[in-house]
Design a protein that fits this description.
The complex is a heterodimer of chains A (about 400) and B (about 140). Chain A is mainly alpha-helical and about 400 residues long. Chain A folds into 2 domains: about 180 residues, Growth Hormone, Chain: A, CATH 1.20.1250.20; about 190 residues, Growth Hormone, Chain: A. Chain A contains 17 helices and no strands. Chain A is globular, with a radius of gyration of 20 Å. Chain A starts with 10 loop residues before the first helix and ends in a 19-residue tail after the last helix. The radius of gyration of chain B is 25 Å and the shape is elongated. Chain B has a domain of about 90 residues: SH3 type barrels (Roll), CATH 2.30.30. The chains are: A mainly alpha (about 400), B alpha/beta (about 140). The interface between A and B is medium-sized, with 37 and 23 residues.
Chain lengths: ~400, ~140
């Protein structure tokens, strides 16, 4: 267990992160485009997407509990991939109300299960000591997968039709499963690999003030974050003529490239400086972006500011699993912790779009961006004042029998 | 638990099956005064692609019809279109006056052409729903 400081070469895990991210890029707002083309009314689309979001929000904690309870985390990842592929096929062949609702619910639950399960598999493979490096790499490959997925599916939707996007998504399950099968078995043991010697109580974790602080910060972050891109993209469509779609594509793909570049650095600094400074930096990029959006209509500036999303995204992507590992140690509650954070993400994001949509309609786009910027400032203040450092003292996880947790 | 298949139930089942058989044999009765619309003459509007023809260029698909606004007599006054965006991000909804749409037969239904230039479509105000005053773009 001593060689774990350097990241072990785990190409299987790299590509698993890549393809699982690619697989899921067709879901989300693109569903609305697809259903519009299939003669759905806007009210039905809103209902279906709302139900899908509700499933994602509500299944975060149950999915976390479930993944904690499953001994073979890989089976959870495999089940997730198969469920997402099945829902893509269902969407492609049968775009009627019940199948679409079921597909969205399946995909929502599967995504809630896969994200923590992949983090848990990683933790099991590299152990706590190598976890930060590994999470940086995971985030890098997931971001590359997101960028490639957006590119691939955008081209596919434009050249072929929107149904082809879901067939493509379903086919991407094959390389994802192949990557999963390439993972070595039982290389190292960390939390989540073996049933813990003593499973910590769930209520002890839920009462941990650090988890509460994390959830609060995460909620505020997404209350600001989630509506920013859709509003800015709408503005681009209005202002930038023929190239608007290309600019929006840049707004989606650019930040992912930044995440891919920065994630390993972010996780390295989270180990060296601690979690708080990296979190503060990442969160600070958020109100900055909102202020730029409020202050400019220049497409170039909007695309440039959107790159800041990559800075926040990199910090956020590596810190969530790292802090969850800090908080849960060997208690076997890692996925529950991620589930609680995921619940905060979902609630924040949902209210963000509602709040910003209402403000943009009733007042103005400018006002919506300013209010989001204020929420972003509140998120930074919340981290500065309320979020404790969670990094464990160096060397905690190098001892063969860690007593902390 | 298996239900008891009494003679009474068997009779009932036979009766229902024979009724079903009779329904299948009898051709459905239509009203006499139906109007037959040949395929290609009419088309469904919801989700239909709308195109624009930029000056001196090939037609370009710009968006889809997502709703039709009618007046109190039932006559269409405006169409609501959804357009733009990449992978569903950045789409906008606008209203255009009914008269700005030109319908023409095509080999598989209708083509709908919007008699507006792309820039005035993009600059159009957002459609906010029927509760707000609708600002429909016209040529």
């Amino acid at each position: 267990m001593s060689k774990q400081r350097s990241p072990p070469g785990l190409p299987g895990l790299d590509w698993l992160n890549f393809f699982v991210a690619t697989l899921q890029t067709g879901f989300g707002p693109f569903i609305a485009v697809y259903l519009t083309g299939n003669k759905w009314t806007q009210a039905s689309i809103g209902l279906a997407l709302g139900a899908g979001t509700a499933v994602v929000v509500l299944s975060q904690v149950p999915a976390g509990l479930l993944v904690d309870a499953i001994r073979r985390k890989r089976a959870a990842v495999l089940a997730g991939i198969l469920l997402v592929a099945a829902s893509a096929v269902l969407l492609a062949v049968w775009p009627a109300r019940l199948p679409v609702m079921s597909a969205l619910a399946l995909q929502g639950f599967a995504s809630c299960m896969m994200a923590p399960a992949i983090a848990a598999v990683s933790l099991a493979l590299v152990g706590h000591a190598g976890f930060a490096d590994r999470i940086g790499r995971n985030a890098r490959f997931a971001a590359m997968g997101n960028a490639s997925g957006a590119l691939l599916m955008g081209v596919c939707g434009t050249l072929l039709d929107s149904r082809a996007v879901f067939w493509l998504a379903a086919m991407l399950a094959a390389p994802a499963i192949l990557a999963l099968r390439k993972l070595p078995h039982g290389k190292a043991r960390g939390a989540g690999a073996l049933p813990p010697p003593h499973r910590g109580s769930a209520s002890a974790l839920l009462r941990d003030p650090r988890l509460l602080a994390l959830a609060g910060c995460v909620l505020l972050f997404h209350l600001c974050n989630a509506a920013l891109l859709p509003l800015a993209a709408g503005a681009l469509t209005r202002q930038s003529g023929d190239v608007a779609n290309l600019l929006i594509a840049a707004c989606l793909i650019g930040p992912q490239i930044v995440v891919a570049l920065l994630s390993p650095t972010a996780s390295a600094y989270a180990e060296r400086w601690g979690r708080r400074p990296v979190m503060l930096l990442g969160f600070a990029a958020l109100p900055l972006r909102a202020v730029v959006f409020a202050g400019t209509t220049s497409p170039t500036l909007i695309v440039a500011a959107q790159l800041l999303d990559g800075v926040s995204g990199a910090a956020f992507g590596v810190l969530l699993p790292l802090i969850a590992a800090d908080l849960t140690g060997d208690s076997g509650r890692f996925n529950l912790c991620l589930g609680v954070a995921g619940l905060a993400v979902g609630v924040g994001a949902t209210f963000s779009t509602i709040l910003a949509g209402r403000l943009a309609t009733d007042l103005s786009l400018h006002a919506a961006f300013l209010v989001l910027a204020l929420v972003g400032v509140a998120a930074v203040v919340a981290v500065a004042r309320g979020m404790p450092e969670t990094r464990l003292p160096a060397g905690t996880w190098r001892a063969p029998d860690p007593g902390a947790g | 638990m298996m239900p008891h298949f009494t003679p009474r139930i068997a009779r009932e089942v036979r009766l229902r099956l024979s009724l079903l058989f009779v329904f299948l044999l009898v051709a459905p009765a239509y009203a006499d005064d139906v109007q037959v619309i040949a395929p290609g003459v009419a088309d469904e509007l919801l989700g239909h692609i709308v195109r624009v023809i930029p000056e001196g260029k090939a037609p370009e698909n710009i968006g889809r019809v997502i709703d039709v606004l009618v007046d109190t007599d039932g006559h269409p006054v405006a169409a609501v279109l959804d357009f733009g965006g990449f992978l569903g991000v950045g789409n906008r909804k606008i209203a255009v006056t009914w008269s700005s749409l030109q319908f023409a037969p095509a080999k598989d239904g209708l083509t709908i052409t919007l008699a507006l230039d792309a820039d005035s479509i993009r600059a159009a105000p957002d459609y906010m729903g029927p509760a707000k005053p609708v600002q429909a773009v016209s040529p």
